[in-house]
Amino acid sequence: MNEHYPFQNPPLPYAYDALEPYIDEKSMHLHHDRHLQTYVDNLNAALLPHPELHDKSLVFLLTHQNLLPCGTQIPIRNNAGGVYNHIFYFSGLTPDADRPIPDPLSAFLIESFQSPEKFKEKFKAATLSVFGSGYAWLTIEPTGRLCIFVTKNQDTPLPAGLFPLLNIDVWEHAYYLKHYNERTAYIDDWFHIADFARANEHLLSFLHA
Ligand code: MN
Q1: Which of 97-103's residues contact partners 24+ apart within 8 Å by CB, and which partners?
Q2: What spacing in Å lies between the alpha carbon of 30 and ligand 1's midpoint?
Q3: Which has the least CB within 10 A, 3, 55, 59, 102?
């Protein structure tokens, strides 16, 4: 996430069909090659007339809205958010389904939610509570407590001071081809391929920062 203008669409870290049967190949093509690409293109278009922003990272753009020129705040918020959220989502999925949750994340989940199963229940309820389009996140607060957080549209948890560990995209484009309007079936499938090892790496980088 340290890149700057012109932003690029990084390739998926696995094959388009690698998440079958939980997420289908066609959804991954459309989601990565069209939806994410559009956010990348629109972000670059919004930044093009503003050379003073060309060395700014995605995280900077998302956390310094007050420093952005008049008229750019909303397009940058939406499109930088779309880039950040999608890269985070795709890199938080793994073809190695149903791997155990590693420590220390497992211990943090037990500390905050009593058990990984209780965490999954709460995370699923939060994900189902997203009204319209958005994301649910597992984050960690500056105090070191885990926090389930929900964002609308392409907002991120960064302005709230939260450090993200894992997210799920619940825009319908993420699941409509396979799961139709059944968000609950998509969430159940997502848990199989959610990359808790990757979330654990994010947790370690938070703890060592
Ligand atoms: Mn999406």
Answers
A1: 97/22, 97/192, 97/193, 98/192, 99/196, 99/197, 101/196, 101/200, 102/196, 102/197, 102/200, 103/200
A2: 9
A3: 55
Ligand 1 centroid, distance to 101 Cα (angstroms): 25
- What distance in angstroms lies between residue 111's CA and the mean position of ligand 1's atoms? 31
Q: Is the distance from CB of 145 to CB of 109 less than 8 angstroms?
A: no
Q: Tell me the mean pLDDT in the region 14-22.
A: 98
Q: How far apart are CA 205 and CA 197, in angstroms?
A: 13
Q: How far is ligand 1, taken at its centre, from the CA of residue 170, in Å? A: 7
Q: Cβ(113)–Cβ(152) under 8 Å?
A: no
Structure tokens at 207: 């703890």
Residue 14 has pLDDT above 90, yes or no: yes
Asked if residue 2 has pLDDT above 90, the reply is no
Residues in the chain: 209
Q: How far apart are CA 85 and CA 173, in angstroms?
A: 14
**Ligand 1 centre distance from Cα of residue 188 (Å):** 17
pLDDT value, residue 59: 96
pLDDT of residue 176: 95
The DSSP element (H or E) to which 151 belongs, if any, is: strand 146-152
